Amino acid sequence: IQYYFHQKVKGGSLDVHPTEKALIVQYEVEATILGEMGEPMVGERKECQKIIRLKSLNVNTDIASLAQKVVEECRLIHPSKLPEVEQLLFYLQNCRKPGNGCVILSSYKQEKHSSRDFISFEGMELDQEANINSIDDYVELLYEEIPEKVKGATLILHLARNSGNLKDLMQNKTALGALARVLREDWKQSVDLTTTIISVFFCFSSFSQFHMLVTHYKVGALCMNIIEHELMKYDLWQDELQKKKQNQNAKKEHEKALRKYQGLLTKQEQLLQVGLYLLLNLAEDTWTELKMRNKNIVQTLVKTLERQDEELLLVVVTFLKKLSVFMENKNDMAETNAVMKLARLLSSDHKDLLNNTLRLLLNLSFDTGIRSQMVQAGLIPKLSSLLADESQRQLCMCILYHISMDDRFKSMFAYTDCIPQLMKMLFVCGESHTDKKLISFCINLAANKKNAQVICEGNGLKMLMNRGLKPKDVFFMKMIRNLSQHDGPTKSLFIDYVGDLAAQVVGEEKEDYVIECLGTLANLTIPDLDWDLVLKEYNLVPYLKDHLKPDHCTFFFPFQKGSAEDDLILEMVILIGTVSTDDSCAVTMAKSGIIPTLIDLLNVQQQDDEFVCQIIYVFYQMVFHQATRDVIIKETDVPAYLIDLMHDQNAEIRKVCHNTLDIIAEHDAAWWGRVQSEKFRWHNSQWLEMVEGRAVADDGDPFGYGDDGDPLAYIDDGDPFTRYGNILERPDLFYSADRIIPVNGTISPEVFTDYLNGDVGQAGGFPDR
């Protein structure tokens, strides 16, 4: 039998050597013995490492060239890792004492700090070099007094900062158990000791595979208790200082206490920093994060935002940013008013802190209530000033965009330098590329009257129209449409562009672009604008009439779309309502036969309240003019449709219907009677039903059947009261038809109701007839 040997080498992570100027390449070798048919028989996998010594590396070495040479000569390093090699070489070049264990944890996530970058505080300097072979001696020190315990823990910390030692330390249960015991028993005795031991476990928490180890020794729960205790101490310090400050006779004592306080505060913030970052690492597991939340981690972090140390604040803000993706944590931040404390961080010069603060605020800005807190905290001017910083611009713009979604806050942008900056950025962008976030933000701001005035100052509107008309940019046209809706001096600026907009409508442009042009024209309710000339010059009437016709299938399937999209048709209806304010335009529209088309459209779109309201508004505008009013009353069924819609569920529809019918009734006596009768019938519907029921009972036909047994035999046009003629001319219906209560007006409906309830008659009966 023949066997074959197959070997596979897989590259791994890169690191720097803890004591020499060298790179360590971790890789994996997989050896497999294959059978005669190529099937694997025996396999073995082994983790190996290769050390690349860099004896020629000095302060004058060209890092880029050396990194390229290392990648080319070492096949274990993939060319894609060239930037990482450069970074490691740069660190080795600038590391003064490589023997101190200054190691970059390259396998650690970018979001986390490495132990080299993070753990550096006063009191951890040593006059001897830590050695992994002397770990037992360091553990012995943990059983001595506090100074010896601090020394032993510091030596172990120096070992833990070298990622290559973590596996050996993990297997030393005695050392880790002793550290956990000392932390649990003596954390109140020494801040230095507590900080050092937590830093050792922080080194383990930097790697996800060691999280179970940290959890096993319950370091996370202990850290929560320690942090809570330190925050309480901080409050006591503050109270004590305040009392001494108020005592005028103890000025020297106050200065002495202040110096002591500053020293204690520095050590405490180092402890809080490493403790919170250990918890942040452990919070990768959602179950662990939930347990932290149950112990009020959000409240603890928000309280820590009052500190001044920027490195500590960076840890706190990063932790809050991670927690903010869950609704429960976001609500806790809203309740603790975290935004007020975050607002002051926007003036920080620390770029990472500023960036993480903005990201946290962006997460929170999706909540309406928190957006209100942001405005109250004065974030609009602060974020507006940060728009000048290109590195933070996108984050600031997204937060401001969310704030601008609320109509309550739109006007506040007019009192900042936000709009001039946005306009400048808007026109710096080329015509071929428009920043969607930027233009969307501008569209929101343009919906406010004060903002619109600022935008149109100078040549603002002219520049926008050039971008909207020439490249035919839909987003710019949306912004222009919002600007055109405001009454006052802003709207009059659009007179010069009416012809250009009308030309875009009749041209064969994209539908969404035409919708915006139509909407802009429909907003231009300007008294000095000659709409009749515009309609004739650009031949708009035939265009509107042709596009308003629904397809044949729409009559049978009302929920299907007609010959054009519903949005396009709706904008056309609104435009007709606008131009109908002009007498000559209204006549032109009526003569073109567009009113029957609108009635057909009303039947098709009867389920859409917006369509119904706008079509009725067109009729409302037309009845103002004598010529069109006569056409609507005498030649169409518009008044009948309006009567049917008088009692629609939509309040706006009812309002427009009543106003239109009032005008019709004022100029036509016949319709006056029908309108008043319908209003009376609706207002007194319950009473009329009751009276009609008693009248039917008196006729000996309690079920309302006619002579032929048909229950609807006496009803004409579906109205049970039509057999009585005009209700307003039937005084016998006002009270009763039972010949008991007189109809001469001496008895009111209230008395009749009492009579039906048995309350009348006992007091002396009815008045004499």
UniProtKB/TrEMBL annotation:
Q: Name one Pfam family in it.
A: KAP
Entry coiled-coil feature ranges = 238-271
What the entry lists under InterPro entries is as follows: ARM-like, ARM-type_fold, Armadillo, KAP3
What is one Gene Ontology biological process annotated in the Swiss-Prot or TrEMBL record?
A: cilium organization
Could you name the Gene Ontology cellular component terms for this entry? Answer: axoneme; ciliary transition zone; kinesin II complex
Which SMART domains would you find in this protein's record? Answer: ARM, KAP
Task: Report keywords, A-Z.
Answer: Coiled coil
Q: Which GO terms describe its molecular function?
A: kinesin binding
Name this protein carries in UniProt: Kinesin-associated protein 3a
